[in-house]
Amino acid sequence: METPQTEPFSHHPRFVSKLTRNTLALILAGGRGTRLKNLTDWRAKPAVPFGGKFRIIDFALSNCVNSGVRRIGVVTQYKAQSLIRHIQRGWSFLDGRFKEFIELLPAQQRTEETWYQGTADAVFQNLDILRSHNPQYVLILGGDHIYKMDYGRLLADHAETQADLTVACIEVPVSEASAFGVMAVDKDWRIVNFSEKPENPTPIPGQSDKALVSMGIYVFNARFLYDHLIEDHDANASSHDFGRDIIPRLVESAQVYAHRFQRSCVSTTPDAPYWRDVGTVDAYWEANIDLTTITPDLNLYDEDWPIWTYQEQLPPAKFVFDDDSRRGQALDSMVSGGCIISGSTVRRSLLFSNVQVRSFSTIEDCVILPNVDIGRHARLRRVVIEKNCVIPEGLVVGFDADEDKKRFYVTQEGVTLIAPEMLGQFYHYVR
């Protein structure tokens, strides 16, 4: 298998061009994400907070805007109000007068009396809207992964190979590949086989421990996409999913190519491109905690490729008391606006907005979502705390898993998730 040029993105300019301007992006953001447990009880997975001030969907949206793809549809379904509110507040700066927009596309039973039945059906049910914008290319994205990618480079590769469909791919350990669509390619990187979530993934030739998997990022020639969505819709045996139905069928009959993520990843090295599926509590905790390290794998301080979001107006973080037994301090941590650390110690933790840690508490290796109030003398270790929790005075979590399991959710890796309802606190409003 020949390897194409794979210099890191930082050596190249952005690929904003006629290609990106003639592209419409569709972000599929309707999934629940059940493996995140209580974090998705009241919101869709793309709306889950991440990184201190962002939502997961901000990464796909920012990649679009930074790449010059500024005609964007966001397809929603499951408990979408939190996501819709976030996009309305934080993503209203695109100007329709210049044919730039973010359009919300909730499940509306537009074509028949069913909700979205699969990823392909979600696009099919918005076919009239796609046609009205008359794009040359349609970029299909998931709204639930953390990564930085120049879609312009992806589009350039798609045009250069004269592909009908291009699938972005990344290498993962074979042991993890069963969760993805696994592909095989020839020397020109044309896909010759595609299997959705196979029990026994095929490794990359010469690399028995790695498999080439789909990132759920597709570029279609627009008219080609329309024809095959209609064909799939009429197929009674289809589950109407890109990975299960459409792509395996197209591999046999069309020009379908793979695009290596190394060619378009941003602010990373070619041998370690950053792409995370934070779909479990363990993965979510780990990706957030990694941001507190000295040099994290994901650079949120990159001015050349910023991550945009809704920016709430808040006062600076505040640290009070400096006595030997009562010192407000945060070490190797990220602390967002509106937080008050009052006579307590925070280590290796990430605090979202408006978190208050009251005196004599110790917080270690924790991810604390917005508007959490932690009472005095609390001791918390390896904990994820959902938004709006009020942590009782003296609560100890993270030191005795058997005891923690009586009240909270504890993962296989020993991370504890605390949600308001687990504390007998109920919030009957959209978050």
TrEMBL record:
Q: Where exactly is the site Could play a key role in the communication between the regulatory and the substrate sites?
A: Q77, W115
The catalysed reaction is:
alpha-D-glucose 1-phosphate + ATP + H(+) = ADP-alpha-D-glucose + diphosphate
What is this protein's function?
Involved in the biosynthesis of ADP-glucose, a building block required for the elongation reactions to produce glycogen. Catalyzes the reaction between ATP and alpha-D-glucose 1-phosphate (G1P) to produce pyrophosphate and ADP-Glc.
Glucose-1-phosphate adenylyltransferase/Bifunctional protein GlmU-like C-terminal hexapeptide domain residues: 315-418
- From what superkingdom does this record's organism come? Bacteria
What pathway annotation does it carry?
Glycan biosynthesis; glycogen biosynthesis
**UniProt keyword Protein transport present:** no
- Family under the similarity heading: Belongs to the bacterial/plant glucose-1-phosphate adenylyltransferase family.
Can you provide one Gene Ontology molecular function annotated for this UniProt record?
glucose-1-phosphate adenylyltransferase activity
Q: Which gene encodes it?
A: glgC
| Positions of alpha-D-glucose 1-phosphate binding | Y116, G181, E196, K197, S214
Protein name per its UniProtKB record:
Glucose-1-phosphate adenylyltransferase
Keywords for the protein's UniProt record, in alphabetical order? ATP-binding, Carbohydrate metabolism, Glycogen biosynthesis, Glycogen metabolism, Nucleotide-binding, Nucleotidyltransferase, Transferase
Domain Nucleotidyl transferase, chain residue ranges per copy? 25-292
State the EC number(s). 2.7.7.27
Stored InterPro entries: ADP-Glc_PPase, ADP_Glu_pyroP_CS, GlgC_bac, GlmU/GlgC-like_hexapep, NTP_transferase_dom, Nucleotide-diphossugar_trans, Trimer_LpxA-like_sf
Q: What is the lineage of its organism?
A: Bacteria, Pseudomonadati, Pseudomonadota, Betaproteobacteria, Nitrosomonadales
Q: Which GO terms describe its biological process?
A: glycogen biosynthetic process
Q: How does it assemble?
A: Homotetramer.
